[in-house]
Amino acid sequence: MKPVQRQRLIWAGLMITLATTLWTALHDEEADTVQVAAAQHRVVAAQTTRTQAGSVKHSDTPMLDMRQLQRTPWQDSEHNLFSHAQIVAQAELPEQPIVQQAMEIPPVPFTYAGKLEDHGQYTVFLSMGDKNMSVKTGDTVGDWKVKEIDANRMILSYQPLRADVPLLIGEHH
What we know:
Blueprint: H1 3-51, H2 66-69, H3 84-91, E1 111-118, E2 121-128, E3 131-135, E4 140-141, E5 144-149, E6 153-158, E7 163-168
Antiparallel strand pairs: 1-2, 2-3, 4-5, 5-6, 6-7
């Protein structure tokens, strides 16, 4: 299909959509005015029925008794959300201590693979599953931060608990 034909089809579809939308909107307005007119007719008929003498109704439209629609206030203060007594009762409850679960430091997920010393700075090679990485002091891997590296050990900090965990990386004397 050529681009010009495609554009014409798109424009035709757009015009059909706009025409349908306009027709629907006009049709809805006509239906609304018919409903409003019918409601006004019922109100006028109800008013004329009330003003006529006797209890004989001359309209087929049933009257709406507003007294049947009104509810009596709910007196049950125990279940009333806006009752003052309930607020006072909740304030008088003794505070219960909040029980927190003690979080434990998970095991270090890294395996020491080697280290490199360059002018007194260490680069440590770690593996985690099938991933290999090199870290220096200050690097962060997941929830773990490398705080310190020396010749024999590396200090990792578990960030959610701010707890330090040593990892041996050299010869232990």
